Amino acid sequence: MRTNRAGTHRAGMRTKWALVLLGATAVALVPWMVLLVRTLPASAEVRNWQVAWVGLDVLMAAGCAATAALGLRGSPHARLTASATASVAVLDAWFDITTAQPGAPLVQALACAVAEAALACACVFLALSKGHAVRE
């Protein structure tokens, strides 16, 4: 079996440029974040609050279900859904904590964040696993 060196080189170059673009984006986001810190109001009235919060939980549940289904079938795609689900869990925890009122609501948000962090850790473990199939 012959390998196509030109094709491999092109794929490597595309990957390199995608990584350079990601690095440049990270740098470009720094002044944007400074601008946001200086200009955004400390509080805001939000419409569809319940939809936003329930939507995060729907994404997290769907990610868990997809990861479980794909993983139990031995699909390597479970690593992708696990990665996405970890991101959603961290995002959910962040917004739980940063939007909670002081006192009991903050304590509840912190407790939820512990559970979400555990879920994120499990998902990262699955995403970084060698993809060993669980199917029998």
From TrEMBL:
Keywords: Membrane, Transmembrane, Transmembrane helix
Record bears the keyword Transmembrane: yes
TM regions (residue ranges): 52-71, 78-95, 107-128
Name of protein: Uncharacterized protein
